[in-house]
Amino acid sequence: MDPRPLPELKHDSLSNIISSFLSKMLSNHLYPTPGLELLPFSALILVLVSFETLFIFQKWEPIFHILLLFCFLLFSVLGPLAFKSPSVYLVDFSCFKPPSFCKVSFSHFIEHASLIESFDSESVEFMAKILASSGLSEETYLPPGLHCIPPKTHQREYIKEAEMVLFPLMDDLLSKAKLTPCDIDILIINCSGFCPSPSLSSIIVGKYSMRSDVKSYNLSGMGCSAGAIGIDLAQNLLTTNKNSYAIVLSTEILSAGWYSGNERSMLLLNSLFRMGSAAVLLTNKKEAIKSSKYRLLRTLRTQTAFEDKAYLTAIREEDDSGKLGVTISKGLLQAAGEILRSHITILGSQIVPFSEKLKHVVSIIGKKFIDKSGEIYIPSFKTAIQHFCLPTSGRALIREIAKGLKLDERDIEASLMTLHRFGNQSSSSMWYELAYMEAKERVKKGDRVLLLGMGTGPKCNSLIWESVRPMVGESKNNPWTDCIHLYPIEAVSPNSPA
């Protein structure tokens, strides 16, 4: 079955699309908070004018005018503080380090694929080419069921894999935070390709005998961006549930997503996706600032699922033989560019400093009225963000996003090294990237970190965190513990093939 025909990205690369929309950012989003956020302030002005009009007609003493102005100024300053939502803190997080027996080298993968009867020689050769140019190392992991010939792809194996990756994560995170399962008020699990009944969240609640009133949620089918969506959901729940702890578990059950057919557009996931899971502990407790790592500053979600062409660029369906898999269409890069340009335009308008916006405006005026050959200044995200965790969907995509955001090699080092060491781990990859930065002790107090996720839909979601303390000594309990001294490596240098 051929993938559905979609227009290819012919003229503009992903980086050009991002850059062009960054240059248009100020025309649509000069101010970070449009319309609705100004509504309460407008109502306050209306009240002020109404009372002032009343005072004038009633010929009240000037002292009342002064008192009214004083009350207005006092409410303007203290009002936002009184009604401000509680801050959400990231207390700690854990990343799953698969056991060594799950490692799969290129030769091991190709040998096993060639022994699986459902694959023809052309499919094996295609997967070998994808691996060679993927940016993955020989140290990535696949679950035990996919090491078998033929692979074990049935419900019982899916449950075993879920327990293998989720239980150690919960144990490690609770141990780090010195909490018990009964201390957790909110539980969110995201897994795109496997949605059992009872749900994965119910499996965790049952395993750890959590409270009967724990608020549990299970997100499925939301792709690689689901980790960021889970954090956004947790933030919303913590806004209305005071003094609470929330755990967000992000994983992907690979044995449930294995494709055993010969459609090339469906074989990509077999070659690129690898084991990985992450657990994140959040809280809105005021005293948590003393023990937490980060404070959540902003979340943003955008999607283009309402466009048919974008919707069909990555979709789970059956091939002509009835075998289930995920079809990746040629139009995926264009769809990624479209969703990114919209997302980055809005995000940039919210976080880029006014000085950057002013430079942009001045350059536009200069180009229009003074020197038409001059270049328009593109605001730099690096003026607002110090560290970047980008989607690990491939080296080419990472470099294209970096080009559009004006990032250098050091800025994308964590993304490239995570892709190399662990592969594409779907929604949990961003946490391995953050763990890399912590292991390198690069995150200082006050630094801001952008975690960007992209998934099927298509969807683009971002989280902006601010470090509340310097990250020192974090490599001791970290998935990079045994190899951080080896990175960065030249295997993912700019000159290496993409």
UniProtKB/TrEMBL annotation:
<feature type="domain" description="FAE">
    <location>
        <begin position="84"/>
        <end position="368"/>
    </location>
</feature>
<dbReference type="GO" id="GO:0016020">
    <property type="term" value="C:membrane"/>
</dbReference>
<feature type="transmembrane region" description="Helical">
    <location>
        <begin position="64"/>
        <end position="83"/>
    </location>
</feature>
<comment type="pathway">
    <text>Lipid metabolism; fatty acid biosynthesis.</text>
</comment>
<keyword id="KW-0808">Transferase</keyword>
<feature type="transmembrane region" description="Helical">
    <location>
        <begin position="38"/>
        <end position="57"/>
    </location>
</feature>
<dbReference type="InterPro" id="IPR013601">
    <property type="entry name" value="FAE1_typ3_polyketide_synth"/>
</dbReference>
<keyword id="KW-0472">Membrane</keyword>
<comment type="similarity">
    <text>Belongs to the thiolase-like superfamily. Chalcone/stilbene synthases family.</text>
</comment>
<dbReference type="InterPro" id="IPR016039">
    <property type="entry name" value="Thiolase-like"/>
</dbReference>
<keyword id="KW-1133">Transmembrane helix</keyword>
<dbReference type="Pfam" id="PF08541">
    <property type="entry name" value="ACP_syn_III_C"/>
</dbReference>
<dbReference type="GO" id="GO:0006633">
    <property type="term" value="P:fatty acid biosynthetic process"/>
</dbReference>
<keyword id="KW-0812">Transmembrane</keyword>
<dbReference type="InterPro" id="IPR012392">
    <property type="entry name" value="3-ktacl-CoA_syn"/>
</dbReference>
<keyword id="KW-0012">Acyltransferase</keyword>
<protein>
    <recommendedName>
        <fullName>3-ketoacyl-CoA synthase</fullName>
        <ecNumber>2.3.1.-</ecNumber>
    </recommendedName>
</protein>
<dbReference type="InterPro" id="IPR013747">
    <property type="entry name" value="ACP_syn_III_C"/>
</dbReference>
<dbReference type="Pfam" id="PF08392">
    <property type="entry name" value="FAE1_CUT1_RppA"/>
</dbReference>
<dbReference type="GO" id="GO:0009922">
    <property type="term" value="F:fatty acid elongase activity"/>
</dbReference>
<feature type="domain" description="Beta-ketoacyl-[acyl-carrier-protein] synthase III C-terminal">
    <location>
        <begin position="384"/>
        <end position="466"/>
    </location>
</feature>
